[in-house]
Amino acid sequence: MDESLSWRAKLAKANINILDVHNDAVFLEFTYHPKTGVFKWCKTYFTIPANVQIEDGTLGNYIQSEVLNLRKELEI
């Protein structure tokens, strides 16, 4: 069912908020769970690779995968 959602909706459902896209970087915030029942917000940025395009949704996929990796690191 999530396959039919736009990349913007997928980010929203994953509690990922894009704050700014500037030059070759995307600034964002997202939630993570350091322990059960607790959530925190993390603000960060990622450099956008040259092969990622904002218009076709690959930026959304890139952001989701980077945030997932960062969440795994923060939730250890």
Descriptive report:
This protein is α+β, with helices and mostly antiparallel strands and 76 residues long. Helices cover 32% and strands 30% of the residues. The protein has helices at 7-13, 58-74, and strands at residues 16-22, 25-32, 40-47. It has a three-stranded antiparallel β-sheet. Helix 1 (7-13) packs parallel to helix 2. The longest helix is centred in the last third of the chain and has 17 residues, at 58-74. The model has no long low-confidence stretch (mean pLDDT 89).
Strand content: 25-35%
Number of helical regions: 2
Shape: globular
What is the straight-line distance between the termini? Answer: 29 Å
Largest sheet, strands/sense/barrel: 3 strands, antiparallel
Please mark out the parts with pLDDT under 50 across 5 or more consecutive residues, or reply none.
Answer: none
Protein topology:
Elements: H1 7-13, E1 16-22, E2 25-32, E3 40-47, H2 58-74
Antiparallel strand pairs: 1-2, 2-3
Helix pairs in contact: 1-2
Question: What's the short version?
Answer:
This protein starts with 6 loop residues before the first helix and ends with a helix. A hairpin with a 2-residue loop joins strand 1 (16-22) and strand 2 (25-32).
Question: Keyphrases for this structure?
Answer:
3 strands; 76 residues; 2 helices; 3-stranded antiparallel β-sheet; globular; 32% helix; alpha+beta
